[in-house]
Amino acid sequence: MVLLLAALCVPSVAIGNDALNDLNDSQASQLESTKQWQQTLATARGETVYFYAWGGSKPVNDYLRWAAREIASRYKVRLRHVKVADISEAVSRLKAEDGSKSAIDLLWVNGENFSYLKEQKLLLGGLTSVIPNSTLLATEELSLRNDFGVPMDGFEIPWGVGQFNIIANENVFAQMSITPADILSAAKKQPGRMSYPRPPEFHGTTFLKQLLVALSHNDERLFELATPEAQQQLLPTLWNYLDKLHPLLWQKGSAFPSSNTEQLALFQQNQQAMTVSFNPNQISKEQDEKRIPQSAKRVYFEGGAITNSHNLAIPKGAQSPAGAKVVIHFLLSELAQERKLNGSWGDPAVITPLLDEVSTLPAQQELHSSWQQMIEDTWQQRYGA
Amino acid sequence: MATKIRRLTLATGWLLVTFVAGLPVFGVVLGLWLSPPISWEQVSVFFTYNGLLSSVLSSLLLSLLAPIIALYVAFTVYSQYRFNPRWQALEQRLAPLLSLPHLAVALGIVYLFSSGGMVWSVLWELFGSTPPEWFGLGRKSLLSMLIAISIKEVPFFLFIFSALGRQLAIKDWLLQGRALGYSESASWWLLVFPTVLKQSRLALLAAMAFTLSVLDISLLIGPNIPELYAVVLYNWQTGFTADEQAMAFLGNLLLLTMLGVLVAAIYTHEWFAIKRIRTLAVMANPLKITRLARIFTAWLGLFSLLTLAILLTFLLWSLGWNTQSPFSAASWSTTLWQDEWFFMQTPLLNSLNIAFFSSVLGVAITLIALELQRQSKRYLPDYVWLLAILLPQLSMVYGWQIAHTDMSASYSTAWIVLSHLPFTFAYSYLVLRGPFQSLDRHYELVAASFGYSYWQRWWQVRFMLLRPALLSALAIAFSVSVAQYIPTLMLGAGRVSTITTEAVAIASGNEQSITAVYMLVQAALPFIAFFIASVLAQRLRGSFDAAHQ
């Protein structure tokens, strides 16, 4: 938690970055030449790595197809993307396997799924010390040590960064940074055209967290364990606000999109005037593909965008751990991170050589994890039926 | 010696049948066994979950109404088409109508007919205006869901009726009805409907169980304040805290109770319907329902039109069309098809391979189960055989996965075929039981009197007469196997990807162009199966077709 606090703001350390880069680069190449890594590379040759990852995004799938080709030619490792509709399917498999021989070599994970796997001791540790390119990670700048308040401790390696933002039609918001009041007045101006994904869907809950932080003026207690007093004092402002907002929403708040992707589809079909996203570059990718209006705008909450990372982890029972490490090593390389950022996916890089302060949104710290359950449960209690 | 062999064969047969029909229970028990202990506090938390009652009630209402509406519509359509030349057209077109995945139908209907949907926009545009906001189906509502499922299940029931009809002496009954002075449409309802209704119990139950537990459509077009029960349960099942696991356990028990309610509802509905029909028959009242029946002659045309509209929408999406640009200015391209085709071939072949073996085996084991029961002259209750359809799939497959892991078994196609087997078996049982049981024993008696042995009678009479129904069962089992996502993913562990594991994962991202590509390809497989079945079925004739046409 302290570490996360320390890395609250994305610092503007443009000077000195190059020096830092050189240092990281040389560290990485030093590590690459160690006997241990050479051994890993040798073991990995000819292995097949089964990578469990959400398969719902064409850009991500295409990116992994590209990565598979590169990895095969560079390291003679075969990367197979096992597409799942929800990563909890992979977690459920690991639970059934219970630490024994696993069908999964690598998985794309974060948040509560990671927290569960780490707690159950189902993940391989010490990744940071054995994967050379992990020295490139912009750990301080992007607050990459914690995953929703749970220390990563080398049980997972950041792969990309998400920053909560809203994509809306041009006439919805006047400013680039918005307040809860802006959303309310936009909803009044265009009744029935705004909405958010139904909590406990992750994007929907994050939307509520952003509102809560803004409405309680960044109250410190939100970043600590949610005590009954703090709840009693802070949460009512959110519910009062939602009581006013919901009747103005899409379908008068009697239905919500099930996910961010569904809301994006509704936005594309012009059924709604806004959608939420964790990818700050999603807007430009959607515009490139001509799926949303060229005039659409990206906005974020005035206090900053809730920022978190999505990560890679290796199960303890993985059959090709060496191969999986090689895959992570490649996915953190400048080549792979650059392609991820500038290709059709547009997912922000996590390594210092590619840090881009200009396109990074100001970051807002995650709330203490105890608030999440509180918000979701009370939302269900008040609006769920 | 001969009796010994006979006994041994019988024992092996029962063992095999019990194994396949018992796999679902095994999975559920093993899956739930490992649940953490439940405290009273958790039970009270469960029952005070906000919206639980309304979730349960709306799910029950939906699962009850949608299949029953579909059944009535399908029966009316069947009665209007069966004995006229249009029947051929209907049978031929059932294949494409059946093979669109549920999700595709739901997506298509909502896209076309929701408020602000394509159809209304185009209609209103003809008069230079825009449709009013309130006009059309809700994007997310119980009504939209009810309509989508009712529409989608009609061809399923028609398919079942068409298999049933080959075994029933409908033409004779109608003649008798005429002799008694009833009009033809009255005879359909008074004489044919009661039998058909009883014989369709299983199909009705399967449709209800499906509606009760279907997840993807519920998420997409179902209401979510409150959510449908399947979604609530899924959220618990995918959670990992002890509390969520406890909720999931209790939730599964509640789901089973709801199924029990639906079974009771099927019998109650049947009782009421038949009582009502008896009363009407005695009173010799003209049936009001028959006046409406004429309208249903338009069903084939309308439904074909709808299917075409949905297919066209998907095709346009897959070629890059979207709402952002006017039709003429859209950037049409086949790149998506070319890109994906390369990656689709292996999954397609896997799907074909798995579906072929699991459907053939499923139908064969169904025949064994039916024959064994015929020999022992006692048919076990249907639900015993349909557990794969009735029990919650996620818990079932989770149990299998644990067993599979404990055996350190390989992730081969054979295991996937085995995991599909309970489902293909249950659905073939659903299709075959009626025809098998109602097969006229007369033919076999005649054959026996000519000195045919047991096996000869079985192959040359019973099997031959069953061929049309067997084809239907194979086609259904094939498409059921193609549609399996959870068992394929969990036992294949990604080593064996099928077109459905790909399609479901991709559809979870709601990207319309690529979802459309995969849905179209996914629909192609059952289409081929149903098409082949219907072509072959028209060449063969069932027992009553032979006797009564």
TrEMBL record, chain A:
<dbReference type="Pfam" id="PF13416">
    <property type="entry name" value="SBP_bac_8"/>
</dbReference>
<dbReference type="InterPro" id="IPR006059">
    <property type="entry name" value="SBP"/>
</dbReference>
<protein>
    <submittedName>
        <fullName>Protein ynjB</fullName>
    </submittedName>
</protein>
<dbReference type="InterPro" id="IPR027020">
    <property type="entry name" value="YnjB"/>
</dbReference>
